[in-house]
Amino acid sequence: MHEMGIAQQLIQIALDSIPKFIESPRVEKVNLRIGKLASVVEHSLTFCFEIIAKDTPLENARLIIEVVPVRVHCKSCDHQWEVTGPVFKCPFCEDGEVEMMTGREIEITSLELAD
């Protein structure tokens, strides 16, 4: 279960991002972007996050996950499209030489702190 490692990294990044001058910070939401090909199981990530966040400013924070579609760019004809199936071949020129633009990311876009 690599979600445990991902949750650990997310928590460390989030904790490092909280301004030091805020006394007793409490994070309400952690907004994430996770690509479809990142192989992250959402409920497993949430479960692991909740366990690791205990007794930190992130305890009881909700993960808000935006799923990022797989977008590729054809190196031959310069076309870009969203891949919805298992074939990574350009629908216009039928070439298979493509570059992945999105779909593998795991990133924190923002934290929402309690007042």
3D structure, described in words:
- By secondary structure, the chain is an alpha+beta fold.
- It has a single domain (3-17, 26-113), classed as hypothetical protein PF0899 fold, CATH 3.30.2320.
- Helix content is 23%, strand content 33%.
- The protein contains two helices and six strands.
- It has helices spanning 3-17, 42-53, and strands at residues 27-35, 62-68, 70-74, 80-83, 98-102, 106-113.
- It has a three-stranded mixed beta sheet with strand order 2-1-6, covered by helices on one side. A three-stranded antiparallel beta sheet has the order 4-3-5, with no helix packed on it.
- The chain is elongated.
- The two termini are 35 Å apart.
SSE topology sketch:
Blueprint: H1 3-17, E1 27-35, H2 42-53, E2 62-68, E3 70-74, E4 80-83, E5 98-102, E6 106-113
Parallel strand pairs: 1-2
Antiparallel strand pairs: 1-6, 3-4, 3-5
